[in-house]
């Protein structure tokens, strides 16, 4: 039997229990990362549904170890801190618009249906502005182009001439 002088020590049974306890907490993050890393298909529309899926997955887990309970709590808090406003069309319009335009998700992926309705209304205003049906709203939207339309209006460079 070979042995290494400076080889790593074997894991204790309690350490194995901790590892087995936290793997189900980390797996959804791995799956979400894989989904959002796709280079051959659009992924912006999947952010809100995946964030919701990870949140539901984390909250459904029952932890057996003290470290597992602490990690679960910390992960849930970090998800809330980072993604709490992801559905808000006023703050991050691209995510909400992309999600409601995807026929797989539409409003289903939203935790707040009013924010989904707001994204749909924003799309309607954008379309009305593009086809010129609502000239008053159109001029207001062109003056308020800023960050809200930077990710939606790909033709903004044409309006600068």
Describe this structure in words.
There is one protein chain. With 161 residues, this protein is mainly α. The protein contains seven helices and no strands. The longest helix is centred in the N-terminal third of the chain and has 24 residues, at 13-36. The chain is elongated and about 80 Å long. The N and C termini lie far apart (79 Å).
Summarize the structure.
It is built from seven helices and no strands. With 161 residues, the chain is mainly α.
Secondary structural class = mainly alpha
How many alpha or pi helices? 7
Q: Major sheet: size, sense and barrel closure? A: none
Taking all residues together, what is the mean pLDDT? 82
DSSP summary, beta strand count: 0
Overall geometric form: elongated
The quaternary state of the protein chains shown equals single chain
Rg computed from alpha carbons, rounded to a whole number of angstroms: 23 Å
* Order of helix and strand elements from N to C terminus: HHHHHHH
Which percent bin holds the helix content? 55-70%
pLDDT under 50 segments (min length 5)?
149-155
* Beta-strand content estimate: under 5%
The rounded distance between the terminal residues' Cα atoms is: 79 Å
């Amino acid at each position: 039997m070979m042995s290494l002088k400076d080889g790593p020590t074997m894991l204790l049974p309690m350490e194995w229990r901790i590892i087995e306890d936290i793997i189900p907490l980390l797996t959804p993050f791995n799956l979400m990362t894989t989904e959002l890393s796709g280079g051959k298909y659009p992924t912006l529309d999947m952010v809100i549904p995946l964030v919701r899926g990870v949140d539901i997955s984390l909250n459904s887990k029952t932890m057996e170890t003290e470290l597992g309970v602490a990690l679960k709590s910390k992960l849930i808090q970090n998800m809330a801190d980072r993604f709490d406003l992801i559905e808000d069309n006023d703050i991050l319009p691209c995510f909400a618009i992309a999600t409601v335009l995807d026929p797989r998700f539409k409003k289903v992926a939203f935790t707040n249906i009013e924010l989904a309705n707001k994204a749909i209304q924003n799309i309607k205003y954008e379309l009305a502005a593009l086809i010129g049906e609502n000239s008053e709203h159109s001029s207001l939207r062109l003056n308020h182009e800023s960050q809200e339309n930077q990710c939606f209006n790909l033709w903004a460079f044409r309006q600068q001439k």
